[in-house]
Records
---
Amino acid sequence: MRNTPVTWPRAELSGGVPSTGRRFALLMGGNELALSRGELLLGRSRSCQVIVEDMLVSRHHARLLVSKVALFVEDLGSTNGVIVNEVPISGPTPLHDGDRIIVGTQELVVRAVDDGIETLEPPSPRVSQPTPKAQPSVQLAAVVTRQQPTQPEVPAQVTVPMVRAPEPSVYPSEGGDTTQRTEKADGLLTMARMADRMIAMGRHDAAARLLGDHLKGVLAKAKQGRVVPRDVLDTVGVYGLKLSEVTHDATWANLAIELHSMARRPLPERAVGILELLLLRLPELDRQLLLRFKAALRDAADNLSREEWTLVERILKMPTR
């Protein structure tokens, strides 16, 4: 986490600045959490004022800047980023009533009201019950008030009731076997599922903006010599081809092909099917890159399984002109 002083961005509010100020809250899982004014850290660490227990949330993931008239969120260099209204943010970003924030696998909705019109009361303190290990869960906690103590003042914590986390991340591999996915793949898969929803709504460019930097990041690390886990490789393969299919932009298919060429592994079956169609529809696909991909697969023939070789044979038959 960056240890930098708070710099308050300029508040630009539609409709002018309320004379009585505003109060802000976060809604999650049907629970409303009022935010105190000032700087609030959000993350997995117990030192944060807003605690989100999710393995895809960094210890110090983001900070919220809460003033009398405005609310901002800033990513603190987290692994999986902060997404506001389906767009990854960079720098302090203003938040308005109804905005949706995604950190890890959790969605938080912003609520903002003018003072004197409606009062946002923090939830009553609750004692959370231990959660069985077989049923992972997510807990959101925040320092929202300070009680008047008889002893030295201690921040009062409000714990929102437990919310079920996603089921354990076990998915079928291309070969049909069940494999445990890596944490990195789960983060990428979370973004990919959001992209699926955008694609279903016809928001193809938004899906590309959401996933694009993640796909480029995987390729960049591979070029630095890092080993890309097989589950990450498969996810990049499928969604790289899928993005090119819906956006008619060859960038993402070329990226997926380049990554698999470096790994000397065939694209997943679903991606191979899309590539066969795109070669007929998308002339911008890099045919020279496809030639190099074929050569890499031939060189790796002895290390490929029978199922992989079936995919290789389909790739080798693809036209390169």
Note: The longest helix spans residues 204-223.
---
Amino acid sequence: MLLLCYSCVPDLKERGYDTKKLAEEVKDRKIKKVTPRQLQTWVLQKSMLITEKLNQAPNEQIQKKWQDSLQSAYAIRISQISANDKNILQNAQGKRKAFLEAFFYELEQGKSIEPTLQKLENGDFIFVDKIENTPQKVWLLEFTKQEAIRHIDPKELRKMRE
């Protein structure tokens, strides 16, 4: 009788769920012990890797595809900003606003832009790096703490501890 009832209940695959994606989601949501230093190191490494990859794009169309792909892969926001984009300061507050104001000042002064990571009050991160061959534009990457922790691979954490 029990066997008959069990065979009538459709499994996840039969219901139309992507079981591989679900397994990955479960793996991502496992509890991880991440120190603030490990989190910051991971975000910096991924940010450098992402901007390096975007700067290697042969043209703007491919760069846009890569940008969209990387945004969805890491659940981050990637944008290009220039000295003329001060409208993003209107909604910014606290450390984010101070960081962006300082950054716009450096852009206006024509100073060279170095890769910079800033941790915000809520634990989120913003990263800025120059766009190759475009001196007046920079990459702005925004990571949320929750998504960054979710995307950290436990194997990477072990390497950071060593």
Note: Residues 73 and 144 are 13 Å apart (CA to CA).
